[in-house]
Amino acid sequence: MQTQLVAALDIGGTKIAGALVDGRGRIRLRAQRATPAREDGETVMRAVAEVLAELAAAPQWSRVSAVGIGSAGPVDASAGTVSPVNVPAWRDFPLVARVRRAAGGLPVGLVGDGVAMTAAEHWQGAARGHDNALCLVVSTGVGGGLVLGGRIHPGPTGNAGHIGHISVDFDGEPCPCGGRGCVEGIASGPNIARRALDGGWRPGPDGDASAAAVAAAARAGHPVARASFERAAQALAAGIAATAVLVEIDIAVVGGGVAGAGDVLFAPLRRSLCDYATLSFVRRLTVVPALTGTDAGLVGAAAAVVAPTGAGGAAGIADAV
């Protein structure tokens, strides 16, 4: 008997990725489009539909039992809508209904991208075996998700753990979310790069002005590049420590493209955490890199749709598919 599959979508401000995922979390087929994040809402939806159409054209599509979506947030899983901060044209966009239509009526589940990454890390990654964890996606934006009492805790609308919009600087810059001084406004990749450029760092001959290029410069000792990452690390540490005090997590798992900076990010992050996680019950909090890599959003979206409460982790998806 052939194993059933789940179609997964990972929707962010930079790319829309899709995959067919089996019960072991293995990706059997991929599709991807750039996110036309500055275009109108229907143009963004067309990119999503193109990814689904590419997956649906494969013979394996006949074995797909459901579609799981991990989207940049905020999302409203109960209403099936999304309002990603980094996709301005989508405000209360009825993504679940539109994907269900594009997928021929298959069941569709929605979680925030941070919750999807958390599901993947708790199933197969660095949070495996931990009953209380925070998992972060630090990329174009900053998202997060929680494991509490051994189960994924998405919250009523699917946004629990959305650390990117905790305010850590009351006098900081306005955030597109409507707040001020949010973690995302300091620690996301584009903001790390912007701050370095504002401070006088300049890209090399290739013109690469990304956070990855800033990380390379920091690794080579450029003081402005290092300062930009240290500021990002401080913001992340403040948000992580606040979460730990509230819900007593014992591990924070950091993934996403910015985590690829390695010690340029993690060394100052761990130092800053010592300054913020000072109460006795959070002093043992550890911070580690994610293990599921760039596929975390896809694997987690699949896991979340077949086990929406997070119960069972790997068992949940395996049993369902």
UniProtKB/TrEMBL annotation:
Name of the featured protein: ROK family protein
PANTHER family documented for this protein: N-ACETYLMANNOSAMINE KINASE (PTHR18964:SF169), ROK (REPRESSOR, ORF, KINASE) FAMILY (PTHR18964)
Pfam family, one: ROK
Family of the protein in this entry: Belongs to the ROK (NagC/XylR) family.
Taxonomic path: Bacteria, Bacillati, Actinomycetota, Actinomycetes, Kitasatosporales
SUPFAM superfamilies recorded: Actin-like ATPase domain
Native source organism of the sequence: Streptomyces tsukubensis (strain DSM 42081 / NBRC 108919 / NRRL 18488 / 9993)
Matches recorded under Gene3D superfamilies: 3.30.420.40
